[in-house]
Structure formats: structure tokens, C-alpha cells
Design brief:
179 residues, mainly alpha, two-stranded antiparallel sheet, 60% helix
Length: 179
């Protein structure tokens, strides 16, 4: 039996606690340390990314990354020997989640609450994080339903234009034949 952290965001850092798996340690990925602190401290050297690399990979600007760090959306990354930010894979995974949530319109306020709960690593926090996602999923489904109604309206209008174009083509085709 091997104990490994349960991670609800598919990153190695934020965990709710350990669970026991029947997989032997040799089957688990070599780059998934059981201690999140070890994962965060591995930011220097191989496997780390500069702020410019993270910006290029994520599509966010370096200024946005610094802003997200300042407001608590992302944890301050480790620093390399030159004092520059050295992001690790788990930072990129967390950013990918944040970007997906922002692209759906989830407000920064909710993301900040979610990030704070993620850092707290408590069972109550995990329950609240799940509730935030459930509430937002309901909101997204509602917006999708409203957009589908709009799409049906657009399809109807486009169908009307296509019908008018066919009639015009038939009329002008008939006039050309009569000439």
C-alpha cells in the first residue's frame, strides 16, 4: 500500500489529505512527491519555468501573472539563484484551471475565495470549493440554455434569408428565361 495526496485540481500541491492506494510506489509517477512542500521547493533547476515561459505557455502576460500572485490567485513561486520566479509544472496546471474558469466568466472574487480555500487544505474548505464549482456549473448550464435559444432564433433568421434568396433567384432566373 502507498499513501499519496488527494488533489482535487489535478495538481500536486493542494491536497485534502492522504489516501491509501493499492498501487505500489514504483507504479506511481516518479515526479509526484507525496509531500506538496517538496513539489513546491523543486522550482529551481530542471523542470522550472521563467515568468516569460509561463506567460507564453498560458497566454497570460507577465503583468497578469504578477497580479494573480499579488491578489492570491496563485502562490508565489520559488525563486531561482538569480532571484527570479521559477514556476513548476503544478503552477502551470493551476493556471490552466484558472484560465478555464476565467474564460467561462467566473468572477475573480469567487476564484480568490476558491484559491484561499485551496491553500487552507481543510475538509470544510474542500466542501466549499465543491459548492462553488457546483453553483457555477449550474450558472454555466443556464447560460448555455439561453444561448441555445438565441442560436435557434439566429437559425430561424438565417433560414428566412435563405428562403428569400431562393425566391429571388427563382424570379431572376424566370425573368432571364423570358427575355
Amino acid at each position: 500500500m502507498h499513501r499519496c495526496p488527494v488533489d482535487l485540481e489535478c495538481t500536486r500541491a493542494p491536497t485534502v489529505g492522504d489516501v491509501t492506494t493499492s498501487a505500489p510506489a514504483s507504479v506511481l509517477p516518479a515526479d509526484s512527491p507525496s509531500d506538496p512542500a517538496v513539489a513546491r521547493s523543486s522550482g529551481s533547476g530542471q523542470g522550472s519555468f521563467s515568468i516569460a515561459e509561463v506567460a507564453a505557455r498560458s497566454g497570460l502576460s507577465a503583468d497578469t501573472l504578477r497580479y494573480y500572485e499579488r491578489i492570491g490567485l496563485i502562490d508565489p513561486p520559488a525563486r531561482n539563484t538569480a532571484g527570479r520566479r521559477a514556476y513548476v509544472r503544478e503552477d502551470l496546471d493551476w493556471l490552466a484551471f484558472l484560465i478555464k474558469m476565467r474564460s467561462t466568466g467566473l468572477p475573480l472574487r469567487a476564484l480568490r475565495e476558491y484559491a484561499a480555500l485551496r491553500r487552507a487544505r481543510t475538509e470544510a474548505g474542500a466542501g466549499r470549493r465543491k459548492q462553488i464549482l457546483l453553483d457555477y456549473r449550474r450558472d454555466i448550464r443556464s447560460r448555455i440554455a439561453a444561448l441555445e435559444v438565441c442560436l435557434e432564433t439566429l437559425d430561424g433568421k438565417i433560414g428566412n434569408y435563405e428562403q428569400v434568396e431562393r425566391k429571388l433567384a427563382a424570379v431572376s432566373g424566370g425573368e432571364a428565361a423570358a427575355s
